Amino acid sequence: VQLQASGGGLVQPGGSLRLSCAVSGGTFSSYAMAWFRQSPGKEREFVATINWSGSTTYYGGSAKGRFTISRDNYKNTVYLQMGSLKPEDTAVYYCAADRLGGAPSTRPTEYDYWGQGTQVTVSS
Question: Confidence band (pLDDT; 50, 70, 90) for 67?
């Protein structure tokens, strides 16, 4: 199973960005999916998760009200729409897949497959 994250870049504070994560080689429609992020010197932080059907989502405190996770099971892709971006959102963003597709989890150890990460930099 391979996860390919894309869509990162440089954006000004207050701006928006949409990340994508394309999954290949597995049964995407059965996976719970998540986004995490990590800044230099910090632990990996949970951002958002979505269950296999897209009917259940859950967000970390920093993402609530500003980010939206969604998925397209026909395109084998999960998205993270980010808005009202702040400099503290600067990080490498990783997508992850839980092949058991159970209740969405905030813990990195629950996820079996990881993408390579995409850099998001929020700066003026």
Answer: very high
